[in-house]
């Protein structure tokens, strides 16, 4: 397939060695077996009272961390606001529809106080609503 050609001009050129590769080589490493020697026994001082207390604390934290969440539609208004506030930290905000008695605003929750919500609408305006004026919050999808 490949013809070997010698260089046409010999001006202090090093030897041209054609490197051939064999694509079907297999390599096997040497496996040294570890000697099974019995390890000397080491006395371990146990403090069971402190260990039990630490295990109980860990169980409480894992249970609270993995508690199941309700679907967003089934949450009450305070639960929805808390969920959206938690999504502000480090994640992309959810676009929502905030419905009041007369007007509904489409946008993203920026911040919330004990009495007010600050919403950034899709038009770029910041709207401040009172929590008691908001009747419903729905997450909408992006189109």
From TrEMBL:
Region of interest (Disordered), residue spans: 21-40
Alphabetical list of Pfam families matching this protein: Spore_coat_CotO (PF14153)
Domain of life: Bacteria
Database matches in InterPro entries: Spore_coat_CotO (IPR025439)
Name under which the protein is recorded: Spore coat protein CotO
Organism: Rossellomorea marisflavi
């Amino acid at each position: 397939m490949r013809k070997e050609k010698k260089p046409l001009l010999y001006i202090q050129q090093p030897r041209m060695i054609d490197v051939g590769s064999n694509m079907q080589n297999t390599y096997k490493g040497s496996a040294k077996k570890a000697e099974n020697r019995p390890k000397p026994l080491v006395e371990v001082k146990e403090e069971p009272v402190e260990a039990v207390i630490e295990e109980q604390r860990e169980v409480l934290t894992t249970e609270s961390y993995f508690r199941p969440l309700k679907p967003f539609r089934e949450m009450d208004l305070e639960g929805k606001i808390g969920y959206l506030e938690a999504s502000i930290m480090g994640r992309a905000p959810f676009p929502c529809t905030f419905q009041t008695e007369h007007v509904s605003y489409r946008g993203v929750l920026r911040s919330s106080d004990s009495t007010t919500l600050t919403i950034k609408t899709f038009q770029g305006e910041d709207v401040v609503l009172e929590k008691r004026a908001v009747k419903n919050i729905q997450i909408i999808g992006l189109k």
